[in-house]
Amino acid sequence: MTVMTVKFDIASDNEASYQLIYSKFIDELGRGRGKFQIAFKDNVYFVSTPENIHDFVRRLLNKTDFRIDKDRLTVIDERSKKIFICGACDMDIFAKFPEFQLISITE
Question: What is the CA radius of gyration of the chain?
């Protein structure tokens, strides 16, 4: 098991669309996990998962209505020393983890 740090921002034109994408994303984060395996603090989720970061990110993108061209997603896996980003990313993250491999998903 590893703990993934997940932050996402949904850019939506209306509240209904935002709520739909948000609820699908939260459902997918919690899929197959007990309440003790997911934590939330300041718009950041900490998810305990047996998946590697590649499979975890792929599942989040494929099973939700996440829009790579509009929404933003950052997933950090300290075990594998990788950071996945979709969309714009807070540059402070790179300063905190300078030795991590950055993987940007653009399509």
Answer: 13
